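--- STAGE predict ---
source: upstream dedup step, 1 unique chain passed
mode: sequence only
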Amino acid sequence: MIDELDLALVDALRVDPRAPWSRLAAPLGVDPATLSRRWARLATGGDAWVTSYPSTDRLGYGLTALIEVECRADRVTAVAERLSGDPQAATIEIVTGGADLRLTVGAVDPAMLTRYVLDRVAIVPGVLRTRTSLVERTVREGSRWREGALDPVQREAIALPAAAASQGRAPTRSPGHRIVADRSLLAALGEDGRMPYAELSERTGLPASTVRRRLAELRDSGRLVLRCDASPRLTGHPIGTMLWLEVPADRLEPVSAWFASVPQVRMCAVTLGAANLAVYVMVRHVAELRRLEEQLGRRFPEARVRERQLTLRTVKLVGRLLDAEGRACGYVPLDPWAPWPG
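--- STAGE serialize ---
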């Protein structure tokens, strides 16, 4: 049975996904052993998990694209399942609006993205047409979203030790392409972002001290993102909606900054495509979305919402395969360098 401690535990790991149970015990008011047992139950049942992925914004190369796919009515689920095994497709959602699917795709360069869209997505039986938008930059990253189960004092108690530890390390200047050499580390952390250092050492063949140092460098630089997610059973079935906006170029900065400050916004990105701003909003009731748009209209009347895409079902979330109830049931390592399945 899900209770308030489960919600608090997940939100605590959203603050610091690799925080030791001993550090979370005092802020959450329970002993470390209880937290360990709780997390094991949630993770085993597919109700919560920690994953990781590289940040193209911080790497300095590579790109992310949002691909909208229109399908034959009787092939929507089949197309989503067919593409869910692709290591390039991080997230796949069944949505309302002008498209049936929305894919978040990673690619090493524009040429590889073009090949993926034309030679992979477009030829899947049932696909009618696609529309691709490039992510120019991410203003608010999905890992920063919080459920609101913790109060400010609890969040600060969890976040401060991690921040203090990073301040004691010298900044690294390793080039972005070094992330290629960390593919085994990325794959292991994607499968389980809380994987112990000893197991990471076994998976990668690197000494545990090297793994610890490299992981710290990647996190401090922002090139590696750790993220805790949970099933709708835990989060209470929030309504996820992507807003595609047209904003005058000279107003993109204040509009995107405002969205990034709104608690209901999970992701905000400046895009190049049919719209120039994509905002993913998580609300409990449709009325909340309407109120948010009313606030937008009062603050920035020049911004226009050109489309709303309600997420009906998430098939894959940052590499995690989800069942019809939204529980994790598998994992496909994210790897833009890998060939896609035939």
